[in-house]
Design a protein that fits this description.
The complex is a heterodimer of chains A (260) and B (360). Chain A has 260 residues and is an alpha/beta fold. Chain A is 35% helix and 26% strand. In chain A, the strands form three sheets. In chain A, strands 8-9-10-5-11-12 form a six-stranded mixed sheet, with helices on both faces. A four-stranded antiparallel sheet of chain A has the order 4-3-6-7. Chain B is 66% helix and 6% strand. Chain B contains 15 helices and four strands. In chain B, strands 2-1-3-4 form a four-stranded mixed sheet. Chain B folds into two domains: 246 residues, no CATH class; 94 residues, D-Maltodextrin-Binding Protein, domain 2 (3-Layer(aba) Sandwich). Classes of the chains: A alpha/beta (260), B mainly alpha (360).
Amino acid sequence: MTESPHEVGGFAETSRGPLSKPAVKVDRLEKTLGSNHVLRGISFEARSGEIFGLLGPNGAGKTTTLRVICTLLTPDAGSVEVLGYGTRVSPQEVRRRVGVVTAEIGIYPRLTARENISYFAELSGLMDGEVHRRVDAVIDRLDMSSFAQQRAESLSSGQKQKVAIARAIVHDPPVLMFDEPTSNLDVLASREIREFMLESKGRGKSVIFSTHVLHDAERLCDRVTIIHQGRVVASGATAEVRGGFKDLEDSFLSLVGAAG
Amino acid sequence: MNPIAVVFKKEMLEILRDRRTLIAIGLAVIATPAVLFIISQVATKTATQAYTVGYAGDVPTGLDILFDATGLKLEKVDAPAEAAKQQVDIGLVFTASGVDEYYDPSRQTAQLADVRFQTVLSRYDAAKVAAALQQKGVDPSILNPLPVSVHPLSSPTQAASNSFLSFFLPYILITMSFTGGLSAALDASAGERERKTLESLLLTPVPRSQVLVGKILAVSTISLAAALAAIASMLIALSRIQFGGGTFSAQLSPVATIVMVWAAILLASFRQGQAYATPLYFITIFPASIVLFIPDFNPNIAYYLIPIFNAVLLLRDAIAHNAVGWEQLAVTSVSLILTGTLSFYAALKLFTREALLVRS
C-alpha cells in the first residue's frame, strides 16, 4: 500500500500551521438540563497539535461541554465552532471532524472487533474501498491484529477500549476528544491511552482531554481550562495555571476553594 | 454504501447472531403445528372415546347393540347411582316401567355419555314405534308428515372448519408478528442505550432518521420472517393434520392466505414503535377475543379503523367466508399504514430526545 506524502500509517498529518486559528472554539456556552444549570458561560479554545485539558471535579460540566461540542446536545446560549463549522448550522460537518472516546466502552458484543470498527467507518461516510484500507490501518496502528476477528463480547476491557478508540479515529478526524478515558482501565491500558494521545498530538491533531485526574493532565496537557460549577475558574498554559503551587492539584484545590 | 443499508446490514448481522431472536422465530414455526396437533388429538379422542355405562336390571333387546355402536360400553354394577359418582360415566337402572338414569353433570365425561345415551334412546324409541306401527299395518312415515330435504350452500364440514380457524388463526398470526421480532426490536432501540453504544452511533454524521429507518427495516424483516414462517408451518400443519378422528380437515383458502400475508406485512411495520405497539396490542387483542365470540357479530366499517383489531376482523372474514370486502380491506390497510407512520414519528422523536443521552 502506497501512502500519500501527507499520510503516516494510513492517517493524515493535520496541518500544524500558525496557532492563530483554533480547531475548537467554545464561546459563552450555556446549558440547562432539567432544573440543573450545568454550563454558565463556558469559553475556551483548543488548537491543532496540542493536548488541551478540560479539568474539573465530577459534576463540573465537562461531559456536558464535550457533548455540546460534538453536537449531541444543543446549547441554550453561546456557540461552538469546530474547524470553522458551527454546531448549530453544520452539525453533520462537525461530526465528520470529531472523534470521541469515553470511559463507557460501548461496543456491539455480537460483532467482531473488526466489524465494530467497519460499521463506524461506513457510517462516517468513507467510500467502500477506503473503509477496508482505513480499518486495516487502524487495526495495525493500535496493534489489534491478534483479536480483530474475535467477537467483542469475548474481549478484555483493554482490548474493548482499543476497539472504542479505533471506532472513534477510523475516519481520521482532526479533533479528538477523550472524556475520562482511563477511569475504567488498568495501569497498562491507561498508559497506552496516554501514549496514543501524545502520538495524536504529534500528528497535529487537536486533542481535548477531559479528566479529574490532575496528575495525568499535568503530564500530558499543553494548556488547560479548569471549570467548576459550570464556570471557567482558570485557563491557560499548564505551567501558568499551576502558578506557584507544587503541582496542578494544589492549584486546582486553591482555585476551587476560592470559587466556593 | 447507503447509510440505511449499512445500518440494516449491521442490525441483521446482530439479530441473526442473537439466540433469543432465533429461538423466538423457531417457536413461531413450531407453535402453530403444536397447538393444532394438540387440538386434533383432543378432538379425535373425544370423537372416538368409549364411555362406560353401569347398569342394573335387564337391558331391552336391541338396545345393547345400539349402545355398542355408539361407543357406550355396558358394565353390570350393583348400585348404578353410587357407581355413577366415579366408577362409571353414567348409571342406568332398567325396570319394568322404564329406565332411571344417574349422572354427575359436573363431570365432562358424564355429560358426553349422557348426550350419547339420549341419542341412543331416541333412535331406539323411533325404531320401536315404527315397528309397532308396521305391525298394525300403518305406514311409519306418518310420524314424519313434512319431510325436509337439506341442501347446504357450502360444505358443512368446511364451514365448521372455517369457523374453528377464524377464531384460532388470527390470534396466532398477530401474536407471532409481535413476538417474533420482539427481542430484535428491544435490542435495536433500548439495547443501544443499555450497551452504551447510542452516543457513538449518534456521533456519526448520518442523519438520525436514516439510522432509524435502517433499524426499522431490519426489525420489520425479522418480524415478517417470523410471521411468514408461522403461516407456512400453519399451512403445512393444516394439510397434514386430521381433526375429529378424520371427520374434517381444516383448510385455508388462497384468499385467506393472501390476506394473512398482507396483514403480516402491515403488522410487521409496527415494530418500530415498540413502546407504543405493545400496549396497543394488549388494549385491542383482549376486547377482540370477547367480541369475536358474540354469535353473528357483524361489525360495521368503523370497527375496521381500530388498529390490530381490524387485522383480526379481516382475517376472520377471509377465513370464515373465503372473501373480504374491498372497503374493509382498504380501511384496515389505511388504518395500519397510518398507525405505522405515527409509530415511526414517535420512535424518531424518542430517538432524538436529548434526555435519552442525559439519562444514559
